Amino acid sequence: MDTITSGEFRAFPGVEDWHPRVTGAFALFRTGTFAVGAQLFGAIAELAEAADHHPDVDVRYSTVRVRLMTHSAGGLTRKDAALAAQISDAARELDIPADTGRMLDVMLAVATPDPGAVVPFWKAATGFAEVRDGVLFDKDGRGPLIWFQPVDKPLRGRSHLDVNGPRDVIEKRLDAALAAGGVIVDDSHAPEWWTLADADGHKVDLCPWRQ
């Protein structure tokens, strides 16, 4: 089955609760209790069996997080969009809201002049899979993304966290981080991203998702 782009995924009806990324399409549903989360999981399981297409589902005390991806195709497909819409319908029938404001990606960014020279080391050390050139991801979908940022000159040991999410969420995180003592060390790429540092100089990039 042919893969589709994030934009093509978003064009499908009924997928407003979902955020398509390179690692799949994600949604978070606020269930409030574990029992309600179990109900939603049961509904998702029935839909998945009927479609013969199985998502990753993380059931917590008050939330259920779902990731859809067609592993055989190596990306998102129409099957993912169709099942996403069905899962959202099931959540609405159970009166369970989607919580789009809490959908964030945390990535470890490794700055290097030659990603090809260091990616094999990181793959071996972490056991992660390369989901596209220069991007590693936990095969079980639990760990953060690791991406390799090309730079013009060698830098020793330069790595930082990236926090990605909806623009309104990221802008709130920016304000909160500054109020907590952080400083902006580079806003030359704003509003695409801001680089912040804590009191010890450790850096975080806050990056709104590109639609």
From TrEMBL:
Enzyme class, broadest EC rank: lyase
Source domain of life is Bacteria
Reactions catalysed according to its record = (4aS,6R)-4a-hydroxy-L-erythro-5,6,7,8-tetrahydrobiopterin = (6R)-L-erythro-6,7-dihydrobiopterin + H2O
Q: Where is the Glyoxalase-like domain?
A: 108-207
A Pfam family this protein belongs to?
Pterin_4a
Keywords on this record?
Lyase
Q: Might you give the EC number(s) for this enzyme?
A: 4.2.1.96
Q: PANTHER family, from UniProt?
A: PTERIN-4-ALPHA-CARBINOLAMINE DEHYDRATASE
* Family note: Belongs to the pterin-4-alpha-carbinolamine dehydratase family.
For this entry, the protein name equals Putative pterin-4-alpha-carbinolamine dehydratase
Which classification does the entry list for the species?
Bacteria, Bacillati, Actinomycetota, Actinomycetes, Micrococcales
